[in-house]
Amino acid sequence: MKKFLSVEDAPSISTLVERALTYKADPYKDKTLGHNKTMGMLFLNPSMRTRISTQLAAKQLGMEVIVFNVGQEGWALEFEEEVIMSGTTVENVKDAAPVLGKYFDILGVRTFPTLKDKVEDYSEFYIQQFVKYSGIPVVSLESATLHPLQSLTDVITITETFKEKRKPKIVLTWAPHVKALPQCVANSFAQWINAWGKADFVITHPEDYELDSKFTNGAQIIHDQKEALKGADFVYVKNWSTYTDYGKIYSNDPSWMLTQKKMEVTNQAKVMHCLPVRRNVELSDEVLDNPNSLVTHQAGNRVWAAQAVLSEVLKSIK
Ligand code: CP
């Protein structure tokens, strides 16, 4: 695997899930695989879970890791080409990325969406510039429109939690939030669950919050949240801003917050969220603190997802 930007780069979801669970059982089984290899992790946006879990995963594979908070500590990067750089940007990615390619064997990058220019965001312009100019494998630590390490984690968590011989019903529900957030976690979750193909998948959101159909095709879209939640085995909660009229908050209807009362129509569903979460805005305290909440377990699985992905990348550069 020469890059990991979306599910399309994964050799097989089942293989990655199996590998991740193997590492969970025995974290150091491949402790020399990354010997004499160095991973650079560049953050153009804040992170806690992705940063720490990927760092741990790389170290458990024997790699050195260098984390660089470009957004706070680096020169302001220019991503456009053929521009006159007489403004605030100091260094073009065309010059910076090849240098990183000399220092590192694998480059992890967290970029961000503008939430203003849909075409640019959905072209994945920022992370693609690193792919184009670094000359080494690039692993997405979340990009403008996708978060594949999170989604692999989510499939791992569902796989190890659901043991019945039927397909689970998984509901992705929109939740209110105080800020306009990217669509990336929701897009990516939809993309992975559809590609996985082992669930009855429902997405519920207020009208006007539809996601890009290239990710949601295969899921049933229901605008009535209560109807959607009926019989759910898993409820994945996430806010996103509008996609069609891009990057807006139309309504922040608090009635969409997930409460324990709403959970009564589910099949004692497990609750998932990628974190960080706004308590009592997206989900109530009682849902988050309930034994059916998987959020901490899910975040713990970030390590094994990252380790499975990095091991695939290391095998391709050995
Ligand atoms: N879920 C997630 O990506 O968390 P961080 O932003 O803390 O990395």
Helix content: 25-40%
Low-confidence segments: none
Strand content: 5-15%
- Largest sheet, strands/sense/barrel: 5 strands, parallel
Shape: globular
Distance between the termini: 11 Å
The number of helical segments is 14
Q: Averaged pLDDT, please? A: 97
Strand order of the largest sheet: 1-7-6-2-3
Q: Which architecture name of the largest domain does CATH use?
A: 3-Layer(aba) Sandwich
Strand elements, count: 12
Top-tier CATH class of the largest domain: Alpha Beta
**Given the helix and strand composition, which structural class is it?**
alpha/beta
* CATH topology description of the largest domain: Rossmann fold
Protein architecture, described:
With 318 residues, the chain is an alpha/beta fold. The chain has 2 domains: 3-146 and 301-316, Aspartate/ornithine carbamoyltransferase (Rossmann fold, 3-Layer(aba) Sandwich); 150-299, Aspartate/ornithine carbamoyltransferase (Rossmann fold, 3-Layer(aba) Sandwich). 38% of the residues lie in helices and 15% in strands. The chain is built from 14 helices and 12 strands. Strands 1-7-6-2-3 form a 5-stranded parallel sheet, sandwiched between helices. A 5-stranded parallel sheet has the order 10-9-8-11-12. α2 (49-60) crosses α14. The longest helix is centred in the C-terminal third of the chain and has 16 residues, at 302-317. The radius of gyration is 20 Å and the shape is globular. Bound molecules: phosphoric acid mono(formamide)ester (CP). Phosphoric acid mono(formamide)ester (CP) binds at residues 47-50, 142, 150, 274-275.
